[in-house]
């Protein structure tokens, strides 16, 4: 009986290995071979940059000039000052005197009506004057004055959604290393799927879509009651094989600071944890299979080694998977400013799948009610 159970568990371990190999070869390899256009395109379409900000006075002062001074011929920046009680209004008033392309929409707190980020973004979109919309956050800073140019150059040929990338600044802490690793892995997933014609999410720190798409699909109406999802749920519901493009040229990276404490990191992840259950069914299945198979792969590997059941074969499969990961992720991580993280791949990969399972359970059990 004991031998029979060991055989079943080892077969399950092999199945998890096959599933993990499938994701690597069928999906992630496409991003490894993808090459962004190096030549700076010429783009003339008018653009509106939308930023929702609540109590972001310092971030606005530090980051907004880099957006307002983009090397682009025709754009406006719409900042929604969402019920701020810090010095955001003074900062924005000062910048309006210096920048003619800055438009400010102010929301005031109401005792009975509590607003959220989706409401703020909707007001910003309505106040914008252009068809092409580019989104980021107040705590983000473009690495280049060509951010707008390269992002909106992807509109055309039927594209209505452009998925960008937003890495974290590097610091010397374990939490920062893992946060950056998790961000690179998440980007690897959603960018690869978009390249394969099945975009399922984007990140609001660097995302573009058309005003026509937003209003034709009634904006965030179907998930306005959900705290998060102004970015990933919108993309998940409205991306098609033909209307979504990606842009990962380094000029388009929108940098931001990662959370520096476990408590702030946990609160951030908790806000987003429950959104995945609202994805389309095929995307939920894909993410569940990836998370569960990766988690079980490591748990069953440990069990095989502890019980001394085919330990050499188990280690051989682990080594084979690691070699394939290194071959693919070495190229991907370089593209996504995570080259230094490749050395920690075996260690962070285990933590990553434990993290996925842990926050998957958090998403089922917990609910939050404010965005900032």
User: What is the annotated CATH architecture of the largest domain?
Assistant: Alpha-Beta Complex
Tell me, what is the CATH class of the largest domain? Alpha Beta
Mean pLDDT: 90
Query: Which structural class best describes the helix and strand composition?
Result: alpha/beta
Content of β-strand: 5-15%
N- and C-termini, Cα separation: 55 Å
Helix count?
12
CATH topology of the largest domain: Spore Coat Polysaccharide Biosynthesis Protein SpsA, Chain A
Number of strands: 9
Helical residues, percent: 40-55%
Alpha-carbon Rg, integer: 22 Å
SSE pattern, N- to C-terminal: HEHEHEHEEHEHEHHEEHHHH
Summed up, the domain count is: 2
User: By CATH's scheme, which homologous superfamily of the largest domain applies?
Assistant: Spore Coat Polysaccharide Biosynthesis Protein SpsA, Chain A
The parts where pLDDT drops under 50 for at least 5 residues are none
Identify the overall geometry.
elongated
Give, in spatial order, the strands making up the sheet with the most strands: 3-2-1-4-7-6-8
Task: Give an overview of the whole structure.
The protein is an alpha/beta fold. It folds into two domains: 116 residues, no CATH class; 231 residues, Spore Coat Polysaccharide Biosynthesis Protein SpsA, Chain A (Alpha-Beta Complex), CATH 3.90.550.10. It has twelve helices and nine strands. Strands 3-2-1-4-7-6-8 form a seven-stranded mixed beta sheet, with helices on both faces. Strands 5-9 form a two-stranded antiparallel ribbon. The chain starts with a helix and ends in a 7-residue tail after the last helix.
